[in-house]
Amino acid sequence: MSRIELIGISGPALAPEHGALVRGCAAIVASRRHRALVAGLPQPVLDIAPVAAMLDRVADILDGGGDVAILASGDPLFYGIGRSLIDRFGPERLTIRPALSALQLACARFRVPWDDLALLSAHGRASDNLPGRILRHQRAMLLTDGRNSPDRVAAELLAALTDCGDAERIGALRIRVAENLGLEDERLTSGDLAAIAGRSFGPLNMMLIEQPSAPAPFPLGLCEDDIRHSRGLITKDEVRAATLHRLRLPATGVFWDIGGGSGAVSLEAARLCPELTIRTVEKKAEEQANIRANIRQFGAYSIRLVCGEAPEALADLPAPDRVFIGGSGQRLEAIVEAAAARLADGGRIVLNAVLARTETLALACFERLGLRVSASVIAVSRRPRPGGEPRQFNPITLITGDKP
User: Which one, out of 36, 78, 98, 378, has a CA that is 20 to 30 A from the CA of 118?
Assistant: First the structure.
């Protein structure tokens, strides 16, 4: 059976033992910067990108009985082409000969251990939630690319922190960039966010982001006293827990929190699902200040505050997978209509109704829009100590609408 020789490259030359393997193959796959390593060989050299077209060409060669050598940077199983090859051809058809990974080289250059690093990749990915993904870790190593370059990542982090007035974290964050590792033009750069944002970098980078401390590790269970809010206007702990249960938040995707108030539901969502992109819509300046303070306190930078009133403020947001409506300001129908129109298939809207007329209007609106509706009533009673007088809170109706 014909095989794939997947060879990791670290440095400016092909190892002698790998040269013999390459010469025995019917074809070679290499990126532009690796072509010089096989110059002069008679075999055809295929581009590694676009990957889908390359995989089809490799399949044709294998079907014809020829072996294929594929040259890849570092360890091809570390955010590399190895996964795509295994998925397409199966592990038994590959022989994998890794070199030092970019992670190992970068940490060696920086003289830092990497067994406790968070390993993240922005390579070929949208950057909607990069601040949230990065800033929840004390130390994170990020693989960048030409679009999500170190200067752009630093600028995005700086903008997110500046928007929330997080001067302390801005001052404490330190970034190191390892560029073109193992090549003649290798370069190491370090600095604060502003310094890195003001520089230019090539496309081959590893970016180490460090801060003195990371947020508390527990994912659920913030109390009302933990969260900055105004005049008791906050979703009660018990109701918040039930609301999050009803939302059934996905691990990734987009969550709208409309009428965010203090941002309590968004905060818990960010801690439960750190890869989730969260947009918290709030029109009141006092509550906007509370949300920013809570983002700072808990490092919940997957939350992006949207200052404005729904439904108008929803127009430019990414389409949601989940929506929570905690406040509607007498514009309930218009908000539900706007949210349902943008909601992904299989998505869900959850609304908490305090008043009977809100409940009636919401149920009718959900049904009119073709959502599958269910509702529950939560009545919270707190007893501060055994034998003490219970404190009763107004019952809340949780209304859920699922989009088929």
Answer: 98
Angle value at C-alpha 197, between 195 and 198, nearest 5 degrees:
65
CA distance 311 to 295: 23
pLDDT tens by residue, the chain, 404 residues: 899 999 999 877 888 889 999 999 999 999 988 999 999 899 999 999 999 999 999 999 999 999 999 999 899 999 899 999 999 999 999 999 999 998 999 999 999 999 999 999 887 666 678 999 999 999 999 999 888 999 999 999 999 999 999 999 999 999 999 998 887 889 999 999 999 999 999 888 999 999 987 666 678 889 998 999 998 889 889 999 999 999 999 999 999 999 999 999 999 999 999 999 999 999 999 999 999 999 999 999 999 999 999 999 999 999 999 999 998 878 999 999 999 999 999 999 999 999 999 999 999 999 999 999 999 999 998 887 777 788 888 899 999 999 99
- Angle, helix 51-63 to helix 82-89, in steps of 10 degrees: 50
| DSSP secondary structure string for all residues of 74-135 | S-TTSSSTHHHHHHHH-GGGEEEE----HHHHHHHHHT---TTPEEEE-TTS--TTHHHHHH
Bond preceding residue 98 cis, omega within 30 of 0: no
Joined together, the tokens standing for residue 184 give 């003649």
Q: Is 281 helix (H, G, I), strand (E, B) or coil?
A: strand
CA–CA dist 55, 58 (Å, integer): 5
Residue with tokens 């290499």: 30
Long-range contacts (CB closer than 8 Å, 24 or more residues apart) made by 314-317: 314/256, 314/258, 314/281, 314/338, 314/339, 314/342, 317/254, 317/256, 317/279, 317/281, 317/342
Contacts (Cβ under 8 Å, ≥6 apart) of 50: none
8 Å CB contact between 268 and 220: yes
What global pTM score does this model have? 0.86
Residue 338 half-sphere exposure toward CB, CA atoms < 13 A: 20
Token pair in block for residue 213: 């401390």
> Are residues 207 and 153 in contact, defined by beta-carbon separation less than 8 angstroms?
yes
The SS3 call for residue 398 is: strand
Helices (H), 186-284: 193-197, 237-247, 264-272
Show the tokens assigned to 262: 């203090």
